[in-house]
Here is the input.
Amino acid sequence: MSNTSAARIEQTPPRFIRAKFAPAYLGMCRDEFNKTVRPHIREFPIGKQGVAFDRLELDDWADRYIESMAIEKAEDQDNNRPRSERRGDSTWREKRSQGSTREMESGTSTRLSGVSDFRKALAQAKEKKQSNT
Here is the structure.
């Protein structure tokens, strides 16, 4: 067998899907699979204890389920619009931030109250706590 033939076989999903892997194949939990899918498809033994499903039958069930349960969308509906435009607010980029309008300088703080508050907190932290005894 050539390398390309071997690679092709490895990429092809197995025709028989064991019962423990079938729910994941359809993207659902085992309880939902047993309730929703299993009553409608055939299963067959594999070996002494194994149970399997036909992958093509699972695919057919999935196609029928999609057809019966899919929600139709309007053709001109754009579900990928940015969130800010969903509310009709197209000027959000033009709004100014409520932050400081003063220019910032790197280095020390320009707020005196912030500096004095920090110094007070630092002094309190350095003080030894008095014991209650």
